Amino acid sequence: MQRRLHALDQETAQRAPAPTGSAGALDAPGPPGEPALELEEEGTADSMLAAASEAPRRPGGRPAALLRRLGIRPRKRLSQSFLVDRRVSAAIARAADLTPDDAVLEVGPGLGTLTAELVRRAGRVVAVELDPRLAAALPALLHHPPNLEVVQGDALAIDPATLFPGEYKVVANLPFHITSPILHHLLGARRRPRLLVITVQREVAERIVAPPGALSYLAILVQLYASPRIVRFLPRAAFYPRPQVEAAVLRLDVRPAPAVVPEAPAAFLRFAQAGFKQPRKQLRNSLAEGLGIAPAEAAALAQRAGLDPARRPQALSLEEWARLYYAAGAPAAEER
User: Fold this and answer.
1) DSSP secondary structure, 223-280, as one string
2) pTM, 2 dp
3) Last residue of a domain, one of 228, 254, 280
4) Pick from 196, 222, 254: which residue ends a domain?
5) Alpha-carbon radius of gyration of the chain
6) Residue 200, domain extent
7) What are the per-10-residue average pLDDT scores of the chain (336 residues)?
8) Do 81 and 219 belong together in one domain?
């Protein structure tokens, strides 16, 4: 079993795709060879800033006109939406309990509606934006606040430790399609945030806070590192263009140490992910397929952990997954 778990780690590392995704709510990369945003025409940074200076003084006002000035056309097929409601942005910022002593990472500032609230409340804000036009325009849109740093790049490829020497919080309107990879990236980082307040798809938020009986791998991932709760649901009118799905504000209070298997959280998550290979099947069958072992061997493994092999993966609690991990003779040392 230990050899199989080691092989699983190797296979996971070999199959792991290079980080792809977005740094902003409109930043989703399209198919290979296509730009992250559909650009109406080419322009220079100077022309962008000139256009931005003619834009509404308040972030979030007349988003369609502002996007036209920046030469950006949202791509609806990628569910690209900007947060444009200032009242919602203020509520998100309040949920993060920001003070002038806080450093904040914002993933995907977009047009700066949420950023404006963050720079007003926090001592330092680092906004990571994938699209170069939005990244270049953002300081001018907000009238160059001194506590704002804009980083143009892919948030999934940036180690937060390179941006923050100490504690920090994450406050962001996340692109829905990168919710899982960005949470894996941030919560699994060597310098985890102290707290996250993020906008995600409502259905995803409900999955993340689900109790045993309705757990998913994403819920296991988040609840291992943090205590999640839904702050509020958001109207579609808070975004431009309006998304086809509902959104929710989720707060994650990061634990001082992982809830279980603190000595090897990454290895534990790889094991749990293998166990969710077939979440609708019985544990013995899902484990067998995920670990590449016989169903009888998987059933024996569950029994060693004191678990019924006929249970479903989503029925197990975090603590029961830990028992299963240790029963498999999994390595105790973390791999970095």
Assistant:
1) HHHEEEEEEEEE-GGGEESPPSS-EEEEEEEE-SS-SS-TT-HHHHHHHHHHHTSSTT
2) 0.82
3) 254
4) 254
5) 21
6) 18-254
7) 56 40 35 34 43 41 84 65 94 98 96 97 96 92 98 96 98 92 97 98 97 95 98 96 93 98 96 93 95 96 97 96 93 53
8) yes
